[in-house]
């Protein structure tokens, strides 16, 4: 299913990009070095994020997996610090601590705890932090010529589809495919393909929206605010799939949401005072609306130049 979704994203992004670029100025050519060191790792990280998240659901519940995946902002901030997308501060470290405590509370006394399921979902959280940091670099740096979200998607989606297909061929029980209730008759195959087409289309627009938001703000802002989406997933899983939801998990979820709220308040205060931009640079109030820049070594690459 993931291969189908990624393949559909590749086809749609290529098609839209073709019509977008007709009559447009030539984009910045990308070197093979940048492709192999920037685009390929981003695609691999994205594919592993999605594949590991889905693999964890074989062992643990949707609610438990979603709560653990809420730790993604922690790893995202760490990668943002490492790639100099975010300046470390005591307040940010405190926010990381609050979210970490929330995750620990959701894991504590989990009756359906499974070691491999937990490992898979936490590795997915690490990959999520890595891939969104790399996505921000590709979207916000002129040198790579991928500032258009559709163009970036057309680069990474084919690689994601190929990698997921290889993993599926190596790990999925394809010898039992014909016995699956979703593909054991012509009608079931048609229905399953239609559902995958609808799901893939929704995934395309969701990812495109996320890319647009990252290009306009930052991966940190989008991912931490996206924890709200995790809360909605948990509510749906509890009421629709009847997943277990204890008081301790509720406290953990509220703690995570508190960490998210604190981060959003922290960013709002910085922009309101006009002290810094998204990456910790000093700014005057008159330049708060300017495009963000990525710290790269000792040089500053302005997106508007």
UniProtKB/TrEMBL annotation:
User: Looking at the UniProt record for this protein, which Gene Ontology cellular component terms does it annotate, in alphabetical order?
Assistant: membrane
Domain Sugar phosphate transporter, residue spans: 27-264
Name under which the protein is recorded: Sugar phosphate transporter domain-containing protein
Q: Which residues cross the membrane?
A: 57-80, 92-109, 115-132, 152-169, 189-208, 220-241, 247-266
The listed locations are: Membrane
- What membrane topology does the annotation report for this chain? Multi-pass membrane protein
**Entry superkingdom:** Eukaryota
Q: Which terms are listed as keywords in the entry?
A: Membrane, Transmembrane, Transmembrane helix
